Amino acid sequence: METQTGSDVTVYWAPGCSSCLRVKEYLSQHGVAYRSRNIQTDPTAVSDLGALGVRRVPIVAKGDDWVDGQALADVARLCGIEFEARVSLTTDVLAARLVRILERAREAVLLFDAIMLGEEIPDGKRSFSDLAYHVFSVAEVFLEHDNGQPVVFESYARLPLPDIATREGLAAYGADVIGRVSAWFDAHLAAYPWDDLADVYYDRQTNRQFLERTAWHSGQHLRQLLWRLDRAQSRDLVTSAAPLFKGLPMPSAVWHSDTGL
User: Does residue 260 sit within a domain?
Assistant: First the structure.
């Protein structure tokens, strides 16, 4: 339940951010009214975030206290919600889903033309080319983590170089990531320490939870690519892809309600 005044809970967010959309839906589902602050359009939102000592989104704040909006258990504690842990899909199912999500994203990229790839996402400052790159980059971050690289906020802020930001470049990058992710699962899936803690900036999360987050994160952005193709080509790709997302803790909406889409 978004409001501009009258709530002591504030959500700082940005368009196109999948975790921002997820935490806003979570609060609304539990009847928590919150002040919605889009850091791209609210002229003081970034400075107010800085006053809290943080410079990333999503952030849920209540007075001087704040939590990362990706950590729903922490959000629940801050907002007085009784948190209910959910049962996730098994790692073999998550692995298969992630690979198929990446494959569908590569298939989708090949249906974009140069004009569509250059368009900005709804109410955002990224292009659909950036978004397509992000789908694959999210999975690449998972591989980098296994090589000892901690996941920081900037890990998810990468943009494609000009030679990759084309349909052909994105398809080639996607194919490379799909190949490396598939090979990693072939080599590590059965015996990986899935219950150990992952080195991520936003929560205390196990490797299993990090894999799940990687799958639904890429999956949500795949839905957004398919949404654009549906509008351009009178298709129903978002609906047809729904089985890929079953059981993943994804937002219900494709875009933020603020966009009306």
Answer: no
